[in-house]
């Protein structure tokens, strides 16, 4: 079976997010001062071939830990759907 | 009222995603060859102050168009929740 994973990787709440901060400040310059607290992370989609959703979930978790997310600075979450 | 927006910005399907392609190839090297077709975009969270969800939605759409997404190369989607 093939599953599609939607992964969100965000900078940890405790850390500064300089890119997000710069964008927050720019919102005022384009007339959108009601937008605040912008935080910018990564959204990753991928396909995984696995026998079951549980196995797919383990594989995606492993991919996040080994390659996609830097757990010192980032947190990740993901959802799986059958593709 | 304050709303939280979860925005996903992804490279258009028709375009190459070199970063995603490099990560797809690396999956084999860490023993995860069942993972394919990795695509990497941005996940952005922000807060918006607005009188209603509809107004908030218009503001976030404007922010995506003006600042966050490059519509020539990227597509965006978002969800709003009351914060």
TrEMBL record, chains A, B:
Gene3D superfamilies: Phosphoribosylformylglycinamidine synthase subunit PurS. It is found in: Cytoplasm. It comes from the Bacteria. InterPro entries: PurS (IPR003850), PurS-like_sf (IPR036604). Part of the phosphoribosylformylglycinamidine synthase complex involved in the purines biosynthetic pathway. Catalyzes the ATP-dependent conversion of formylglycinamide ribonucleotide (FGAR) and glutamine to yield formylglycinamidine ribonucleotide (FGAM) and glutamate. The FGAM synthase complex is composed of three subunits. PurQ produces an ammonia molecule by converting glutamine to glutamate. PurL transfers the ammonia molecule to FGAR to form FGAM in an ATP-dependent manner. Part of the FGAM synthase complex composed of 1 PurL, 1 PurQ and 2 PurS subunits. This is Phosphoribosylformylglycinamidine synthase subunit PurS. It comes from Parvicella tangerina.
């Amino acid at each position: 079976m093939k599953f599609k994973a939607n992964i969100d990787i965000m900078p940890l709440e405790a850390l500064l997010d300089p890119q997000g901060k710069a964008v927050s400040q720019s919102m005022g310059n384009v007339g959108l001062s009601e937008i605040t607290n912008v935080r910018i992370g990564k959204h990753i989609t991928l396909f995984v071939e696995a026998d079951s959703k549980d196995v797919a979930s383990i594989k995606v978790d492993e991919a996040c830990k080994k390659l996609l997310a830097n757990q010192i600075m980032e947190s990740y979450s993901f959802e799986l759907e059958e593709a």
